[in-house]
Specification:
The chain has 13 helices and 18 strands. The strands form five sheets. The chain has a five-stranded parallel beta sheet, covered by helices on one side. Strands 9-16-10-11-12 form a five-stranded parallel beta sheet, with helices on one face. Strand 14 and strand 15 form a beta hairpin. Helix 1 packs across helix 13 and helix 6 packs parallel to helix 10.
Length: 477
């Protein structure tokens, strides 16, 4: 490992890279940037420590990608920051070997990321980034930040100059408009799934609980509540908009939608085609893993062994039209069956909104850069294949760029939030940023051929001898 880099020569000395946000994706970038001695990088995060969906770290819940999809392995298996090296450092390599687990628990993935975050230099927690600006006189980005004290209050102001910025500010809980009134219901427990564990004890005291959302988090929370409720008195409702509590597409060829090959194919499609594809691919990323579906059915079945049915209602294909508080301790949901066009009301004592997450808007951070940003027909940032925002040529001519992580689903497809593409994307960014190829990337990653016209990644001259070319077949052969 290289020694901890010293600070910039003076406060005005520009850095090569400033990362904003320290979630798994920017942590991956920091880990892969670590051995690049010539790269001066720093990362800022407003939280006091690394955390990864703490409200959903349920006992037994597993990450939905194999352990090889750690922060670095798929770009650099020899990195000191692999999950296997974490196990070795904790003297747990043999127990993991005998456990024969390809998918690890979420709590273990979180612990692994915290191990990396606590060991890497250049990570600054309790630093809130307030704005990113372009300084045309110096041809450099300015990043304004506030250092926070342990109570989260502003302590000192700072400014960092940098040639490149990588935005990894993550996602935020999403609450659909019809459900927003529920968050203003004092005295009635209404929580988003992101905060589930913090409120589980309170939820379990409610007489009747409703879970809204038919994805993985909704399934896991419904299962957890079911296991903690007495048989015959479960008093649970589980509602979802999808036509079924459907399994996630997990076939081997289906998973190839989460490869660099498919990402390149998707990025090259026209904007309207990309938008249509995203809405039709929900089962690739919003379904439920089959183990969780099986566990739910097993638990429900177990409760029928002595006669009777559990007091649990599972209804897909339902949307909440409106919602509000009645009296002081109850909630009324106005429901509509999407296919029958029938309507009903449901009164409940507590609600868990397992309604997913959305990309955190970039507008606040990038307000000062708005005149320089290039947007598509829906006013979304245009993003190139190297995950760079399209900017005014005055900026890019100076060799400066803004990169994004997990904010480009509209341009890069369903694999954008997938942990399995974290290392590849980080390596892609570092290769583009350095103008070299510190991380050689594979030319082909899928057996599926996406499209009739193939787009191959650009290969540096030094490696072109390795590239394999296909000779077109003659007609009739």
């Amino acid at each position: 490992m290289k020694p901890t880099p010293g600070p910039a020569t003076t406060p005005d000395t520009p850095r090569d890279l400033v990362g904003i946000g320290i979630g798994p994706f920017n942590l991956s970038l920091a880990a892969l940037a670590h051995p690049l001695a010539e790269l001066d990088a720093v990362f800022y995060e407003q939280r006091p420590t690394f955390t990864w969906h703490p409200g959903l770290l349920l006992d037994g819940a597993r990450v939905q990608v194999p352990f090889l999809a750690d922060l670095v392995t798929l770009a650099d298996p020899a990195s000191p920051w692999t999950f296997l090296n974490y196990l070795k450092a904790r003297d747990r390599l043999f127990p993991f070997y005998f456990a024969e687990r390809f998918h690890i628990q979420r709590t273990e993935y979180d612990a692994y990321c915290r191990w990396v975050a606590s060991s890497l230099p250049g990570l600054h927690f309790r630093h809130q980034v307030d704005a990113v600006r372009w300084n045309p006189e110096r041809d450099i980005f300015e990043v304004d930040h506030t250092q926070l004290d342990p109570s989260g209050q502003a302590e000192t102001l700072g400014r960092t100059y940098t040639r490149n910025v990588v935005l990894g500010i993550g996602t935020e809980p999403h609450i659909p408009d019809p459900l927003r009134p529920l968050t203003d219901a004092p005295g009635v427990p209404v929580i988003h799934s992101a905060d589930y564990l913090d409120h589980r004890a309170t939820l379990l005291t409610a007489d009747h609980i409703t879970v809204i959302g038919s994805g993985q988090s909704g399934a896991e929370i419904f299962l957890d509540l079911l296991r903690h409720r007495p048989a015959g008195r479960e008093r649970l409702h589980w509602l979802g908009r999808t036509p079924a509590f459907a399994p996630m597409e997990y076939s081997k060829l289906g998973l190839e939608h989460f490869t660099p090959d498919y990402t390149r194919y998707f990025h090259a499609l026209p904007e309207p085609v990309r938008d249509h594809l995203l809405t039709s691919q929900w089962q690739l990323h919003r379904g439920i893993d089959t183990d969780t579906i099986t566990a739910i059915h097993d638990e429900l079945y177990r409760r029928t062994l002595h006669g009777g049915w559990p007091d649990a209602v599972l209804t897909p294909g339902v949307r909440v039209r409106t919602a509000g508080r009645i009296a002081t301790t109850k909630i009324e949901l106005h429901l509509e069956d999407i296919h029958q066009s029938t309507r009903s009301r449901l009164t409940t004592d507590a609600v868990v909104l397992a309604t997913g997450h959305r990309e955190r808007p970039l507008t606040r951070l990038l307000a000062a850069l708005d005149p320089y940003l290039r947007r598509d027909s829906h006013h979304r940032p245009r993003i190139d294949e190297h995950h760079r925002l399209a900017l005014d040529p005055a900026i890019t001519a100076a060799g400066c760029h803004l990169y994004v992580q997990n904010a480009e689903r509209h341009t890069h497809g369903v694999g954008t939030p997938d942990l399995g593409l974290a290392a590849w994307r980080s390596a892609t960014i570092l290769n583009a940023l350095t103008g070299k190829e510190p991380y050689p990337l594979p030319h082909r990653t899928a057996f599926t051929t996406f499209g009739l016209e193939q787009r191959q990644p650009q290969i540096p001259a030094a490696r072109q001898y390795e590239a394999r070319t296909l000779t077109p077949l003659r007609d009739g052969i």
